[in-house]
Amino acid sequence: MDRLELTDAAPASPPAAQHDAPDDAPIIRIRGLVNRFGDNIIHDQLDLDVRRGEILGVVGGSGTGKSVLMRSIIGLQQPAAGSITVFGEPMLDRDPADPELIAVQKRWGILFQNGALFSTLTVSENVQVPLREYYPAMSARLREEIAAYKILMTGLNAVDGPKYPAELSGGMRKRAGLARALALDPELLFLDEPTAGLDPIGAAAFDEQTLELQRTLGLTLFLITHDLDTLHAICDRVAVLADKKVIAVGTIDELLALDHPWIQEYFNGPRGRVAHGARPLAGEALA
Ligand SMILES: Nc1ncnc2c1ncn2[C@@H]1O[C@H](COP(=O)(O)OP(=O)(O)OP(=O)(O)O)[C@@H](O)[C@H]1O
Ligand SMILES: [Mg+2]
Fold first, then answer.
1. Which residues of 90-123 are buried (b: 16+ CB within 10 A; e: fewer)?
2. Boundaries of CATH 3.40.50.300 in the chain?
């Protein structure tokens, strides 16, 4: 189907000449993105803007390509076509050793869908991984101090630093992953399903922590989630992935006004209405 007219993405134009975005320029700008694995086309001419300082929720059915989209932005997946700029810097077809590319990588933090903690490293050592990678000359003592600070920032306790991932609960592992994502004082945070697998209370606490960090640190968040409560509680706008594209971007109320079957089913189904503060209709199950 056609792209719904909700997005305010500018028409495709040549990449800006400057290499740092002006204040009102999108932090992430994606145009005409195509991703495929063999004959399996995941994204076809996908466009998306992420604005400075917003929490953008990214939703879509399982397998619609949310994680692949995130991996394309951060350079772990090479798209077949299109353009991606982050902080005004083009991301595709770059030499991995290019200092300007590395400078951009230092400005973001990533929490992967599976947590991706190194099981043989303690929480503190995990948080220190990006510091070792991007600041090899940093002293061990400073690294440890920064890690200890980030661990506290995410709501873990100092005693959790020497623990191994296997010794943590699922919620604690998410927080440890978040601490690692914050290691480099990022301006931009990518979170892939941060509350998946957490109980509702743990998920709400994680959302609150995320929002507080975002507000205090002035972060921009690219937040992939299935969690309707998260979308309602903390997202400024929501991008919907369907039909191999971002079919709409807007507030939940703006999305609810659209006549797309997946959007209606997702946000206006029984779970969606409960998250929106409405009651399920009589006879409707929350299966
Ligand atoms: N490395 C790969 N090789 C081949 N196919 C892949 C690869 N990575 C992802 N895919 C396919 O791309 C599609 C999108 O995957 P992706 O992980 O982005 O989905 P998702 O929207 O994140 O789903 P979920 O909500 O379940 O996490 C799936 O069909 C998946 O099988
Ligand atoms: Mg995924």
1. bbeeeeeeeeebeebbebbbbbbeebebeeeebb
2. 27-107+188-195+204-275
| 242 C-beta closer than 6 A to ligand 1 | no
Nearest listed ligand to the Cα of residue 63: 1
Ligand 1 site, residue 68, Cβ cutoff 6 A: yes
Whole-structure pTM value: 0.86
Residue nearest atom 9 of ligand 1, based on CA coordinates = 68
Q: Measured in angstroms, how far is the CA atom of residue 146 from the centroid of ligand 2?
A: 30
CATH numeric code, 27-107+188-195+204-275: 3.40.50.300
C-beta of 112 in contact with ligand 1 (< 6 A) = no
Nearest CA to ligand 1 atom 3: 37
| pLDDT of the chain, 287 residues: tens digit per residue | 334 444 444 444 444 444 555 667 899 999 999 999 999 999 999 999 999 999 999 999 999 999 999 999 999 999 999 999 999 999 999 999 999 999 999 999 999 887 789 999 999 999 999 999 999 999 999 999 999 999 999 889 999 999 999 999 888 898 999 999 999 999 999 999 988 888 888 889 889 989 998 999 899 999 999 888 889 889 999 999 999 999 999 999 999 899 888 898 888 876 666 666 655 445 555 44
Q: In Å, what is the CA distance from 77 to each residue of 42, 91, 92, 187, 235? A: 12, 11, 10, 22, 26
